[in-house]
């Protein structure tokens, strides 16, 4: 599930294919994403990209970015959230803990350390990498646009999100907040 995508190409026998690249780019794109499940509704993928153009010099999400993402998901789902996430250091900051403590609609469960196979979002990234294999990007904006396009395509195919969840081996039950 977490392996890199295999890519293939072709050429005449005995001639190694060579791809010419016009320049170098150290552009980076961080993506924070949540896989959302609500009983009786289709699975959802909510994501926020953060290109490397930020003025604060940070190259990844700060805890405030995750706070904004959780708030957006709460608004979209319109109900309490049970959030299961990994032990990323940004998830464990004091500011994030204060944010969580101040929200009665938010319950957090931490995954065990070094257990990415239990995180459904980890099943989404190979789908994106598979579609990016053997792609020669024309400019620094091209990979960013392509990744957004791939994420948007997955959003409309909820069965892919369900497969990523099934790959964890975790079983979804009804929400503890719904009447039985």
Automatic annotation (TrEMBL):
State one Pfam family annotation. Answer: DDE_3
Domain (Tc1-like transposase DDE) spans: 5-138
Write the protein's name: Transposase
UniProt organism field: Catenulispora pinistramenti
**Lineage, highest ranks first:** Bacteria, Bacillati, Actinomycetota, Actinomycetes, Catenulisporales
């Amino acid at each position: 599930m977490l392996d890199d995508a295999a890519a293939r190409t072709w050429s005449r026998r005995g001639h190694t294919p060579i791809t010419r690249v016009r320049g170098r780019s150290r552009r980076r794109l961080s993506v924070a994403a949540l896989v959302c499940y609500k009983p009786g509704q289709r699975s959802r993928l909510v994501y926020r990209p953060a290109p490397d153009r930020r003025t604060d010099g940070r190259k990844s999400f700060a805890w405030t970015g995750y706070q904004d993402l959780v708030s957006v998901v709460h608004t979209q789902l319109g109900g309490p959230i049970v959030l299961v996430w990994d032990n990323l250091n940004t998830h464990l900051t004091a500011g994030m803990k204060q944010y969580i403590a101040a929200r009665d609609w938010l319950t957090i469960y931490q995954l065990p350390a070094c257990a990415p196979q239990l995180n459904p979002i980890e099943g989404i990234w190979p789908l994106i990498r598979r579609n990016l294999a053997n792609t020669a990007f024309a400019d620094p904006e091209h990979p960013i646009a392509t990744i957004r396009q791939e994420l948007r395509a997955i959003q409309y195919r909820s069965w892919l999100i369900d497969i990523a969840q099934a790959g964890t081996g975790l079983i979804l039950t009804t929400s503890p907040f719904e009447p039985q």
